[in-house]
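Protein Record: Sequence and Backbone Structure Tokens
======================================================
Tokens: labelled as protein backbone structure tokens, with as many entries as the chain has residues.
Task: work out the structure tokens from the sequence, keeping to the layout shown below.
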Amino acid sequence: MQLSERTSRLSPSPIREILRVIDQPGMISFAGGLPSAASFPSIDELSVRPELLQYGATEGESALREQVAHDLAGRGLDVSAEQVLILSGSQQGIDLVAKLLIDSGTPVAVESPTYLAALQVFSLFGADFVSYQPSNIEALRQTHTPNLVYTIPTFQNPTGHCYNLAQRQTLAKVTDELGCVLFEDDPYRDLVYDHCERTPVCSFIERSSWVYQSSFSKTYAPGLRLGYLVCSEDLFPMLSWLKQAADLHSNRLSQSLVLSMLNRRDNRLAEVVDSYRAKRDAFCQALEQTLSPYCTWSVPDGGLFFWLTLKDPYVQDTGLLLQESLKRNVAFMPGDPFFPQSEGIPACLRLNFSHASEPEMKQGLSILSELISIAND
């Protein structure tokens, strides 16, 4: 048996490996981007129409596509329902775009750091990474022109950074000038706790091809495995065909359930945001009390994560810190897997604040503080 060449680049997701242990009794998890179970909508009864049990359209249910297009217009992204592709989770969108645009050696521009699962998928298809910083987007002009620019401009994963208006317009302008495809990943947009700019970068694109995607996992429930993408008209047929080859169509029951929740227009999302804002503030206070001697961070305006950078001369090997932390029933994400490069990486931690209870926050952060202190004695 001969495996494909790309399997030499295949590796498990570090997040999924860590999440395998979080169900152990007593484990406090700051690791994955897990929404709080309290944020999930209550489902008293789902009325299943018989036709939903049959195969459906690859592009998705027409009513849901119409609703997504309508909601995107409110964000400043003017698209038709015919440009909406319903996904089996936004992770599928990353896979489809990679299949469409990346071959071995294809230059792909990404933020440094960026979403590690995107790095994993792009690497599998052979991407040659070009990294950039939101503070210096103009530097992309001096690089070998990428075929694809992947960005998370709103509550970036892992840093929580939110691009200002000038950064969004500059990224669109540079993309237009270079003639590459802009791929905007926007799963955290609705989890906003303080005022900040959230207009999609894709809305400023004038000439280049583009893809914009989001998810219902963070605002409704990740178990539904439902997201969507919209894109410039030239890319839609090929992305639709790739999805057709992958899974025919997304779960029709999940689509029906999400559409019914979108149509309710109740206060559930506002209540979720208020709850997460309180959790963010409590987490920040606990960080100040426990980790301020050892780390620096910025308070995120939205999303689910704090990004901590360890001060010198404290622990530099966050992988070893994780091993010791798991022994004490505390899980977190080391920073290394979020970087496209392997050298010159600062010692960082990504901590999720939405999943743990307030007492668990304080206990888990106290344990991390103690471990960092011990490691430097």
Summary: The chain has ten helices and 13 strands. The chain has a mean pLDDT of 91.
